[in-house]
Specification:
The chain is α+β, with helices and mostly antiparallel strands. It has 18 helices and nine strands. A hairpin with a 2-residue loop joins β6 and β7. The structure holds zinc ion.
Length: 484
């Protein structure tokens, strides 16, 4: 007989329990069976309790003494429910998860009530489930994020039902056109049965907290820089109510709700009709510009660029892409329905990937004249795009916000006459990811960079000779600073 006859799910304890089960069924004591197979009762007891692995010859002797097939002793199923629970507890207590808790092992002897055994096994199963859930989260988050981005692409980033809800609400407070004041936001919030309160001691993990019982929304102090963001925060807080959100059951639900509330806030701050009218006029005059939308509605450049993507295809018939990119090239956020080729990881996620060095999102950092938007035409394998970018400073460092359109749509935008041009061959690694052959020959082995730790969780480390380090950047730096 070979070892592969043994079911891989069978444990030493299961075999022991099956022996004990058949021994009891045959009405034999430990002494009886031990005598028949020529071993000591203490040895047999150790085997029955899973503390010793029986040799195959002994197993065969036991099987014939008990009048059962050898296969019956080697089956994976516990002989009874109680045995199954005892085996489950034993297995769980031997596992690495339980070891990390530093708790004593409970012996699943006869005197342990089945009820207590059930509870312990249930707790172990839940502990294992929670532990695997926690470690699956970053992956789950990335997949959920990718799914959501694809769903939004299929709808051209336009959610009509939320546009309608926002418009209806604006009607109740008599909004007609122009930027929304803080006072109007207060009226909307109060119309929905809430009041706004500023607090210095908001929990650091929260942006706002809503007291549903008393209809109070707590916001950070109004004196904080970037106070225009407060209107958006207040609107996002009431949006859960307006949109009928219930407690999110999954991470995907949570993410979709986050998207919907920020969509709602954008719809209120840049209402569909007013914003569309504004943009259509600019398009007729071939004078479309994100900065104008920003200034007309008193929002951030990023909010305006993002809002433009909601209305561009649905209202203006223009496909677009949007990107928020860090100075080091990390893509924080992106949207496209114009086939621009965002870098992706194996799961299809774009967040944390590095965009091409020749894209406007990155070249804007070299051309920043502080006067306003930077424009560039970029030839890529998926076509030529005209892009407009603006840089800013955030909590996570310098970043750029880019809005781009296919070449044919550039004619509607201010800045189309730009002479800045660039060629991107990414994802071909020789475009900008690999250092040139001569620099590699010169510096490989002579460069010892110390990598910065990436702070953003979703960030994937660019792979170079040193983990997290961009070789092309390091070699170019060394080349520029080397003594001649
Ligand atoms: Zn490139």
């Amino acid at each position: 007989m070979s070892a592969d006859m043994i079911d891989p799910g069978t444990t030493v304890l299961t075999i022991g329990r099956r022996i004990r089960h058949f021994r009891a069924a045959a009405g034999m004591t430990l002494d009886d069976l031990a005598g028949q197979v020529g071993t000591a009762p203490s040895q047999l007891s150790l085997i029955e309790n899973g503390h010793r692995e029986p040799r195959l010859t002994l197993l065969q002797a036991i099987a014939s003494a008990l009048g059962v097939e050898l296969a019956a002793l080697l089956a994976a199923e516990p002989p009874s429910r109680r045995d199954g629970l005892e085996i489950a507890l034993d297995t769980a207590q031997r596992g690495p998860l339980y070891a990390t808790l530093g708790l004593p092992r409970v012996r699943a002897g006869k005197r342990l009530p089945t009820e207590a055994l059930e509870a312990l096994v249930g707790l172990h199963a839940e502990l294992a489930r929670r532990s695997s859930e926690a470690s699956a989260t970053p992956e789950e988050a990335r997949r959920a994020n990718t799914e959501l981005r694809r769903a939004m692409r299929a709808r051209d980033n336009y959610l009509e039902e939320i546009e309608d809800a926002a418009e209806e609400l604006l009607g109740t407070v008599g909004y007609s056109s122009g930027p929304l004041t803080h006072r109007t936001v207060e009226q909307i919030v109060s119309h929905l049965g809430f009041s706004l309160h500023h607090a210095r001691d908001l929990p650091s993990s929260t942006r706002t907290v809503t007291d549903l019982e008393h209809g109070r929304i707590y916001l950070p102090p109004a004196s904080l820089p970037g106070g225009h963001g407060l209107r958006s925060l207040a609107l996002q807080a009431v949006a859960h109510r307006v949109l009928g959100h219930t407690h999110p059951g999954t991470y995907a639900d949570f993410l979709r709700q986050r998207l919907e509330i920020s969509y709602f806030a954008a719809c209120v701050l840049m209402p569909r009709h007013a914003a569309t009218e504004f943009l259509l006029t600019a398009k007729r005059n071939r004078d479309l510009a994100v900065e104008d939308l920003r200034d007309a509605f008193g929002v951030t450049h990023e909010s305006a660029a993002h809002r433009f993507t909601n209305l561009a295809t649905s209202q203006l018939g223009i496909t677009v892409h949007f990107a928020r990119v860090g100075r080091d090239g990390t893509l924080f956020k992106g949207y496209e329905n114009d086939d621009v080729d965002f870098p992706t990881d194996v799961t299809g996620a774009i967040e944390g990937q590095t965009v091409c060095r020749h894209w406007t999102s990155r070249t804007v950092f070299d051309h920043n004249d502080l006067a306003g938007e930077f424009h560039q035409y970029t030839d890529t394998p998926s076509g030529t795009y005209w892009c407009s970018a603006q840089t800013g400073q955030g909590a996570d460092g310098d970043f750029s916000v880019t809005l781009g359109v296919p070449f044919a749509a550039a004619k509607w935008f201010r800045g189309r006459e730009t002479t800045s041009r660039s060629v991107s061959r990414c994802p071909d690694p020789t475009c900008c990811r690999q250092p040139s052959a001569d620099l590699t020959a010169k510096w490989r082995g002579a460069a010892w960079p110390s990598a910065k730790l990436h702070t953003h969780i979703l960030g994937a480390l660019p792979s170079g000779t040193f983990p997290g380090v961009d070789d092309a950047e390091v070699y170019a730096f060394l080349e520029a600073h080397a003594p001649r």
